[in-house]
Design goal:
By secondary structure, the chain is mainly alpha-helical. 50% of the residues lie in helices and 10% in strands. Helix 1 (20-45) packs antiparallel against helix 3 and helix 4 (98-108) crosses helix 5. The longest helix has 26 residues, at 20-45.
Length: 206
């Protein structure tokens, strides 16, 4: 049984950067639907007992094409949103510290350089999708973007997302309309860098 993350903040807690109506709709409608559909498909495919990271990393093991597609789309939606909601906070923003800060600067030049590169990938993703910061067990950081509800786990290269920017229109359209770049800029004000750093360290620990 796959369960939605329980939000550690109220729907309106991320105002004015992320509005309450968007948060409520995003979490209670979109994410809830992905979770229900994943559970239904996983039950039919006999993989409901698997960890979601394993499931998304081994989609080719699901022989039924329709179920494989359903788990890719809804499992991706479930996992991606759990990550997204867990790395935002009313006390977010600023910059990371410690090991993650050092590696960001080593990999991308500076925090502003990292911010610009990730923002560019997210803004430039055609149609629905995500912008990602990912790591592998060696602590190497990479940036990428993916369409729909895909994520780096599905690419089979050992990278695990530790931060994702949702650029589906349902994530921002009520407040920002077609100004995706404005939403991305605002998103950096709610990133919980402690949570991202915890994700980073967890991947390295295996």
């Amino acid at each position: 049984m796959f369960n939605q993350i329980q939000l550690p903040y109220a729907y309106d807690a991320l105002e004015p950067h992320i509005d309450a109506l968007t948060m409520e709709t995003h979490y209670s409608k979109h994410h809830a639907a992905y979770t229900k559909n994943l559970n239904d498909a996983a039950q039919k495919a006999g993989v409901a007992d698997k960890e979601i990271t394993f499931l998304l990393s081994s989609l080719d093991n699901i022989s039924d094409e329709a179920l494989r597609k359903a788990i890719r789309n809804n499992g991706g939606g479930f996992y991606n949103h759990n990550l997204y909601f867990s790395t935002m906070s009313p006390d977010g923003g600023g910059q990371p510290v410690g090991l993650l800060k050092d590696e960001l600067e080593k990999s991308f030049g500076s925090f502003p350089d990292f911010q610009n590169q990730l923002s560019g990938l997210a803004a430039g993703q055609f149609g629905s999708g995500w912008g990602w910061l990912s790591t592998n067990r060696d602590g190497k950081l990479i940036l990428s973007a993916s369409a729909n509800q895909d994520n780096p786990l599905m690419e089979g290269n050992g990278f695990v997302p530790i931060l994702g920017i949702d650029v589906w229109e349902h994530a921002y359209y009520l407040k920002y309309k077609n100004l995706r770049a404005d939403y991305i800029k605002a998103f950096f004000n709610v990133i919980d860098w402690k949570a991202v750093a915890s994700n980073y360290e967890s991947v390295m620990k295996g």
